[in-house]
Amino acid sequence: MNRNVIGLTVLVVFGFACSIQAMERPNIVFLIADDVSQDDFGCYGHPSIKTPNVDALAAEGMRFNNAYLTTSSCSPSRCSIITGRYPHNTGAPELHVELPEAQVRFPELLRQAGYYTVLSGKNHMFKNTDRAFDKITGGGGPGKEQDWVEHVRNRPKEKPFFFWFAAGDAHRGWKQSEHAPVYSNDQIVIPPFLVDTEVTREDLASYYHEVSRFDHYIGLVTEELRQQGILDNTLIVVAADNGRPFPRCKSRLYDSGIKTPWVVYYPELISSPAVTDSLVSVIDLSATCLELAGVEKPECIQGQSFLPILKDPEAKVRQMVFAEHNWHVYRNHERMVRFGDYLYIKNNFPNQANLCYESDTHFPAGEELWNAHAAGKTTVHQQQLFANPCPAEELFRISSDPNQLINLAGDSRFTGSLEQARRSLATWTEQTGDSIPENPTPHRHAPPRIEDGKILPAGKGSTRTPHAEMPGAAKHAMGLDHPGPIRLTPY
Q1: What is the tally of structural domains in the chain?
Q2: Cα 487-488-489 angle, rounded to 5 deg
Q3: Phi, psi of 445 (to 5 degrees)
Q4: CA–CA separation, 225 and 152 (whole Å)
C-alpha cells in the first residue's frame, strides 16, 4: 500500500485527533544524542561523566535499563525510529541511504492530527524539507543544539507540539565549548576491550565533554518548558542513535553499541519515579506517541506502545528485541536477538574481521588498539576485535557477563537457550522479510592489516560508496509490515 495514502486516511478519519482538545493532548520532545552508549550517563552509573539534567529527568520519571536500538549505525537507526520499522523494512538499512519517500514517518501523522512538528539538529534521514515537519533547522553551535530553546519559545501556542531535537554530540570530530566540563585523564573509565594509554584516555575525555554538552542543552529545554508551565504535560524521551564511537561499540551488536539510554519523563502516567528492566525497542516510540496523541497506529508501524510500562514498570510489552548490523563503511550482515537473560548474535559474513570505521586506524583509540595488537600486547578480550574469521554465532548471559566477553554458543549447558535464540531469529527473519544480499555493498576502503609486525593502515577510499543489494530487497521487505515475534514461544 502507498504510505502516503495511509497518511491521508489518518488525516480524514481523525482530523484533529477527534474530539480531544489540542491543549489536552501531550506535547512530545524527543532528544537524541549522536554516538552515545547507555552507560555514559550518571543515572546509568557512570562515575565521572556529569549529566545532571538527564539524571534529574530519570529521578522524576522512568529509567529503562533494557532499551535497544534496531541498528547501531547513524542514518539507518534514525530512519528506523522515525518510521517505527526495522532497518531492512525501511528501504534505508545501510549508512548514507535516504529514507524512501513512500515510508510513513510517524511525526507526519502527528502533524496531520494538529501537532506542530520541528526537527532541529542532525537530520541524516531525508532532505531539509519533509512532509513530517513544519520546520527543519540545523540546530547551530558545535553540537547542533543552539536553537532548541528558541523553537520551544517561539512555537504556536494554540497547538500541541512534537520536537525531534537531534544533537551532533558526541560524534567525531570533537569540538570543545564552554557548555560542558573538561575532563582530565584520571577521570576516565577504560572498558576492558580498549587499551589503557594516555592517548585512549584523552580520546575518551573529549567524548565525555560532548556527552555533558548534550545534557546541558537538555537542561535548557527542560527549564524553558517549566517556565512556560507545560513541563508536566510534556512527554520527554532521551535516547541515542548508536553506541559511542569507539572500537567494539558503534555499529556492533553488543550492549556497548546497541543498548541505548532511554529516560522517559511524563508525570501524567508515571505516578512515582521508577526503574524498569522491561525490554523496549526504539521502534516502539512511534506507537507510543501516536497512542498518546489519540492517533490510530497504521499497519506499517512495527513498534509496540510502551505506555503500559509507564503505568507499571513491571509490565512486559515484549519479551524479545531484535537488531541488525548492515553495511557501515565495511560490509557486514549480523543479526541479534535479546530475550530473558541472553543476547544472541548471528554473523552471516564470518569470513572477515568484524570492523567498523571507529575500530580501525582512523581515530586515536582505535589506532592505540592496533598498535598494541601489532606488538602482541592485547588481552584476550581486546583480541576479539581482530578475530578473522569471526564466530558465526555468539551467545552471552547478560547477568554474569554485562560486556559480552564470554561466548557460550559452544557450551552444551546452554543448548536450550541457543536453540531458542536460533528459532526466534529465524521466525523474525521470515516474518519481516530479511535477507542476506547475494551482491552486498563492498567495503568502502581496504581495512587495516598487520604484516611483519607493522600496521598497514586502512585505505583512504572514497567518502561515499555506491550501494549494491540491500538486506531485505530480495524479499521486498520494504512493503512488508509484520512486526515479527514479540513474545517467546515455548521451546
Answers
A1: 2
A2: 120
A3: -155, 165
A4: 7
Does residue 346 sit in the same domain as residue 463? yes
| Residue 77 neighbours by CB under 8 Å, 6+ apart | 69, 70, 71, 87, 241, 242, 282
Q: pLDDT tens for residues 462-491?
A: 667 789 999 999 999 999 999 999 999 875
Residue 16 lies in a domain: no
Cell of 432: 519481516
Of 315, 332, 363, which one is at a domain's C-terminal end? 315
200: containing domain: 26-315
Kindly state the average pLDDT of the residues 110-137: 97
Alpha-carbon distance 199 to 37, whole Å?
20
Domain boundary among 262, 287, 315: 315
Question: Would you state the pLDDT for residue 302?
Answer: 98
**Domain harbouring 244, CATH code:** 3.40.720.10
Same domain, 379 and 412: yes
Beta bridge partners of 234: 27
Which amino acid is it at 264?
V
User: Which phi and psi angles does 179 have, rounded to 5°?
Assistant: -90, 5
Name which of 11-20, 105-114, 355-364 the model is least confident about.
11-20
Residue 452: pLDDT band by 50, 70, 90 thresholds?
A: confident
Q: Is residue 335 part of a domain?
A: yes
